[in-house]
Each structure stands twice: as C-alpha cells, then as structure tokens.
Amino acid sequence: MRKLFILLLAVFMGVQFTSAQKETTAPVNQLIVVANHPGPVISKDIYGHFSEHLGTCIYGGLWVGRDSKIPNTEGLRNDVLFALREIKVPNLRWPGGCFADTYHWKDGIGPQSQRASIVNTHWGGVTEDNSFGTHEFMRLTELINCDAYINGNVGSGTVREMAEWVEYLTSDSDSPMTRLRKQNGREEPWKVRYFAIGNENWGCGGNMTADFYSDVMRQYSTYLNNYGGNRLYRVACGPSDYNYAWTETLMKDPGIRGRFQGLSIHYYSLVDGWNNKGSATEFGENEWFRTMNSNLQMDVIIKGHKAIMDRYDPQKTKGLVVDEWGNWFNVEPGTNPGFLYQQNTMRDAVTAAIHLNIFNQHADRVKVANLAQMVNVLQSVILTKDDKMVLTPTYHVFRMYRVHQEAKLLNTDLVCEDYEFQGRKIPAISASASVDNDGKVHISLANLNPSKDITLTCPVVGETFKTITGEVLTAGQMNAFNTFDKPEVVKPASFKGFKMKDGILTVTMPAKSVVVLELVK
Ligand code: AHR
Question: Which atom of ligand 1 is the closest one to the Cα of 373?
Fold first, then answer.
C-alpha cells in the first residue's frame, strides 16, 4: 500500500517535473519526501549510548573520582558531562556488555573504601575497584538528564540478586533493600526505565541455547517488579547478526514473549570478519567500501528479525532494541588489546549516519538503540586522555541528528546511483526524514561515495516551506580524524549546497559527507 502510494506520487511528481523542467530526463538521484503524512514517532531512545566497565570508558572517560584535579561534579568529569548534554543522550546502558554477567551490584555500593575489588576477566584482566557503582551511575544519568538502562546479571548472578537490585533502585516501600539504599545516602527511589535480563547469553553471558535462555528469562522476569510508579521496560537477550532462529524461539511462544517488552539485538560492522578488523585510521578505499557495505547489512538484519516479530506481534507491542552497534576495528597500536580503544574518522561519521537513518526508517519496530560505546571504547563519541577531551566525527553526527528524536517519520522514496568499487555496488546515498512537533521537517543524508559529489533531486510533497538551512560534516580525507592537539579537523559547517524551486529541492552533497537540512514553514 505504502509503495503504491509512493509510486502514484512519483508519477504525479513526474508530471510536475515535465511541466517545470521540460528539457530534463528523470533524475538519477531522487528522494521523494511526503511531508503531510507523518508516520510513527521516532523513539528518542534509538539515539542511546552504552557505557561498559571496559578499558577507559568508565574510569578516566566518565569517572575520575571526587578528588581528581580534573574538574568534576561528584567524580564525573565536567567536560564530558557538558558534551553529552549537547547531544541529548536519551538513555545510557550500563554496566555491560559481557561485564554485566560478571557484575555483582552489591560490590559497588556503600563507602568507597570498603567496596570489594574484582578482576575484570573479559576486558584486560584489570582490577576493578567498584568505585563506580549504582549510585554513581544513577547520578550520571541525572546529570545528563537521560533514562537509565541497566543490564542485569543472568550469567553468573542469581534471581534474588537481580530482584533485589530492582528493589534497591526503585522501591519506595520499607524493606531491607530500601533501608540499605537510604543508609547509602539515597532517600528517594530512582526511576529506571530499561532493564535487560542478561547480555549475549548465547555467548559471554552463559553460552545458553535459545530454549534454555527462554526458560531462565521467564524465571528472572517473574521477580522483576514494578514498584510504585516505576514501570520497567524489560529487555530480553536477543540474537546477534543473522541468528533468526533465536528470535523465532523468543517470539513464537506467548508465555515467553509475554515476559518482556523489548528484544535486544547486537550487530557490529567489520571490515573483513573478526580475524581481519583493520585499522581505524590507516585504510584505503577497499576498507572504506567494505565498512559501508557491512553497515548497510544492519537494514537487512533488522528486516529479517522484524519479519519474525511481525508474525507473532502484528500490533508491534514488542520493541527491537539494537543495544550494541557500531564499527569494530583493531585497537590503536600500543594500547591494551583488552581495552578496545580505537580512533574515529570521517568513515565512522558516515557509518553513524547510515545506522541512524536505518533506525529512523524502522521507527515502527526499533524502539531503542545504543552505540558501542560512549567514551574511549569502539566507535565512541568522545575520547579522553588525562584532562584532555576530544569530540569524534561520530559525536557530530549524533548532534546533527538529535532533531529526529521524538519527531514523526516521513515517508520517503529514494532512487539513487550506485557507489561502485572494484565491481561491487552499494547505494551511494542513505536518507531519512521526519517532522517535529513544530512542523519543521528534517532531512538527513549521507553520501557514501568517498570521491564523488552527488546531486540529489528532492521533491518535498504536501507542504510548502519558507526557510531552509543546513549543516554538513565532511573532510578532505576519508580517514580524517580529530586529535587532542587538532580537535577540529572534522567538524560540522553551515551548508549552502541546496536550492528550492517549484517545491523541488536540489541538494549537492560533497563526497563522503553527512548533511542535515531543516525546512521551516
Ligand atoms: O561492546 C563490547 C562487547 O561486545 C560487549 O561487552 C559484548 O556484549 C559484545 O560482544
């Protein structure tokens, strides 16, 4: 039906093209934006982030401790807090990742000097002193004004331990857990929106089969109570990549799917498989192309899992929670292999744009997504070193795209040229559009071709607009990146490469760029 509507519209627009620009043939690159039929709300939570006890994401990246010389608010570094507020982080996932299924939350409460130390077996074998725990995490969410997304321990924890954590966090009754919380300085319960029942339980979270996990999840979720006004959005561990069988098992039985609100999925983009991840900064067009190609698989994967979910949940009451995504490259030379520290280039910016466009386009089913990870790990938005901080190209995309949060998705139809490399082809453009509560339309575009500017004809149907402004993120080199010494090599600029004539917008996107346009009535 949607396709038919867009087809009719395209024919109609074709007539308009013919009368307005008689001499032109059909444009090669065309994005039709239907501005007067808004679709589903784009959940702000697909712009979420992920912070694991891994490398220097927490320690050094977010948390420096109250006694640090680095300016901080109750131990959380001010420069990072400020930058995170700017991108409107909607939710933050913690404490892992694989770490979550080794984490025992009671180790991380109470006086800091008395907290138990553990060894972080997954990530570098370093000693974890638990100085960043529940109170510190919840304070962080308050300071950046986002929802908490807590990942419980199924792999090595107990039902009681998880149930008590939820009680400690959210209950306002008089109980041993709430008394303990008050004793530790927090009178009022917190609100916790998202709570995951394990992480990657098919792998680091216990090596379970889908059937076994389903039973375990049913058991654990039974004891995750909604206290007072708090309503948990329970996230069941879903598959990674193309493991459709796992989704089928979790979705087919009403007794299983009735126990969660969201099903997670993880997908990392790799240049050439897990054994050949390549460098984050030293790469050529071959690696660029392979990365883009891998990024686009996110759409294929979502469609596959969505099809299964649609069969058992046509009302779309269950959300797909893409709570780990991003580019995974080799660690920077000389850094701890267990810390997953990688630089971030213009390639990562285009990756972010592609993913966020895909999530927007699947707003009917994708309700939460979390970039891996927030600071100093994998495709981070921020890098820190001692008292220095730098914003990555990926950060700038999140800032530019924040306009889509809670806006309504607009129907679009994209026809575009291919970006071809050594005989392989992928679409050269990625796009999505939304309308916000003030009626402003935002169109976000990425040009995947690293060496060709592309002109896109963009009929915006159903509304007329008085003002258009734009922002662009691009760079001279595809591997351009920001450093502590040169923090503004890749930064957004005002964009003027468009014109509007007879309701038809024409946009010329620079090679390897991300563009966001704002159309105001
Ligand atoms: O983000 C790094 C790791 O990747 C996470 O801990 C795990 O869930 C995934 O395999």
Answer: 1
Residues 149 and 220 both lie in one domain? yes
- Residue 306, both tokens: 């969505």
Q: How many whole angstroms separate alpha carbon 499 and alpha carbon 227?
A: 54
Residue 406: active-site member:
no
Residues 393 and 476 in one domain: no
Which residue range is the domain that position 486 belongs to?
A: 2-40+409-520
Amino acid identity, position 52: E
CATH of the domain at 426: 2.60.40.1180
Same domain, 295 and 353: yes
User: Hey, whose CA ends up nearest to atom 8 of ligand 1?
Assistant: 97
Tokens of 344: 């971030």
Is the CB of 265 inside a 6 Å radius of any atom of ligand 1? Answer: no
| Residue of 254, 256, 260 lying closest to 367 (CA atoms) | 260
Q: How far is the CA of 96 from the centre of ligand 1 (A)?
A: 7
**CA–CA separation, 410 and 108 (whole Å):** 45
Which atom of ligand 1 is nearest the CA belonging to 340? 2
* Verdict on whether the full-model pTM lies above 0.85: yes
C-beta 323 within 6 A of ligand 1: no
| Binned average pLDDT, 10 residues per bin, the chain of 521 residues | 48 43 66 96 98 98 98 98 98 98 98 95 96 98 98 98 98 97 98 98 98 98 97 98 98 98 98 95 98 98 98 98 98 97 98 98 98 98 98 98 98 97 97 97 98 96 94 98 98 97 92 98 94
In the residue annotation, 164 being an active-site residue is answered as: no
Establish whether residue 324 lines the binding site of ligand 1, counting it when its CB lies within 6 angstroms of any ligand atom. Answer: yes
